[in-house]
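Workshop exercise sheet. Pairs work together: one partner reads the sequence aloud, the other fills in the structure field after running the prediction. Swap roles for the next sheet.
Pair: D.N. / O.F.
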Amino acid sequence: MIDTPEKARGTSTGTVVRTVLPPAETPPAPRPAPRRENRLRALDGLRLVAALMVAGYHYGGRDGEVVKSWGTSPRHQFPTLHHLFAYGCLGVQVFFVISGFVICMSGWGRPLRSFFASRASRLLPAYWAAIIIVTAVFALPVVAYKAVSPSDALVNLTMLQQPLGVDRVLGVCWTLWAEVRFYVLFALCIVLPGANRQRVIMFCAGWTLAAAIAQGVNEPLLNMVLMPEYAPYFIGGVGLYLVHRNRRDAHAWGIVAVSWLIGQHYAVQHLWHAPNPEFFSNRSSLGIVIVVTFGYVAVAAVALGWLHWANWRWLTVAGALTYPFYLVHEHLGWVVIKAYHQTLHIPSYGTILATVATMLLLARLLNRSVEKWLAPKLRTALSKPRP
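Structure field:
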């Protein structure tokens, strides 16, 4: 038996000569593509920074219900830092920029059913748990905060309490209502027809123009749907994801620039006021612009790969804790601050650090016992195709 291919040819003498051809080269087996690290851990760290900014605002950057917890105004508890804590509310704008980036990344190439299942399983388990916990704690006789009615608490489970005019269980849930509206717009305009660069650019440009028109005509329905005061941050994040895909994309950089220009305007318009000794503190317009710019620049640094070195595993854990921490930190933080400061007499700075640590521990428990258990089940149930 001959193992190699042969070719026979005749000669003038009738002798058959067999020419043995060299064995054909077997093409090398394709190497498996290197596993791409889809998790941008620096973005997880930035999420935690934004959440801590908001916590600093709620604990030491404003008056209101937290005064009962401290016993006096936070401006007396933190004579110097309360001015800086007052800027922490801008952590929400940073969150929205991150959200625009993440939603565009997670929705790209994903069918609508999968996108919906992903978002619902991400938001709802920890949210439901936070609603139940806060409602139960505020119902305790020893807690000096008023709980919402049972009927209102049930409506809060839908995330539609704000448009329905129902009392909120969680003070921060107004940001979730903005997130939900963004998800719907993105799903209808991008995910449903299929994501591509041109469609995303048109979405960003169209939303920017429509939001400006809505602001100009001051039509309540248009304002609710198009969210002129929050749209620039979501759009800026989407533009930064396009930059992440191609850092030389001039259209993407244009989207980011226009969004930043409009976003800083809205932030200054809503959060700046003239210095007044009767107000808690005064945020300067320059300070507001700097914090908003930080949000865009930080996400841009992630998009451009400048923070690829921040690849520590603990950042993934931090990112997983951010959402449950954000949900529970405000209202339950009031209860914890009072226990630490007025009952245990822990000094102000020690109290705020201990409260943040306690809320992070609770967030870890929610992540491990609720999110990791319920989220996969919910995602699987919502992803199943129906006959």
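Discussion prompt: The longest strand covers residues 6-10. What would you look at next?
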